[in-house]
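so my prof wants the structure for this chain in the tokens format not the other one, which i didnt know existed until like an hour ago. anyway here's the sequence
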Amino acid sequence: MIRTTDVPRPLRAGAALLGVAGMMALAGCSGPDAASTAGSGDAGAGTQSGKGSQVTGSGSTGGSTYADGTYTAQGSYATPESVEQISVTVTLQSDVVTDVEVAGNPTTRESREYQSKFIGGISGAVVGKDIDTISVSRVAGSSLTSGGFSQAIEEIKAEAAG
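here's what i got, hopefully its the right format
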């Protein structure tokens, strides 16, 4: 017979809740170490806010949803230690991303590591794709940076649709 009275009920409930929360946190860490465009969720994105955007381009649309040109927008994402900022520059031609550049100024060692991995892998995940189909949630093991990137892409789309 199992005795459940040795451990107080609130302690058992708390341990169960902690176990479930731990599994959810670890679920966000799983998956392949490559670009993922299947889902738009970012399990640990936290609070996001963006600032301004810049655009340079020809203004020709030629049946496209977005004007051709080079667009820059800022995105931010929360980490457990800080809020990080990235700058995303995308060149569009006929709604297709022909070039992407991401720059950041990380404030912690861990953020520097993950931003570096993200910057190294993002080009392969988005160049050559229609901007409306871009939905990255993890690039080279970095999932939080994807939140800031996705936010900047949304600002770029709004500006290019202008």
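also thought this was worth mentioning. The first helix runs from residue 9 to 27.
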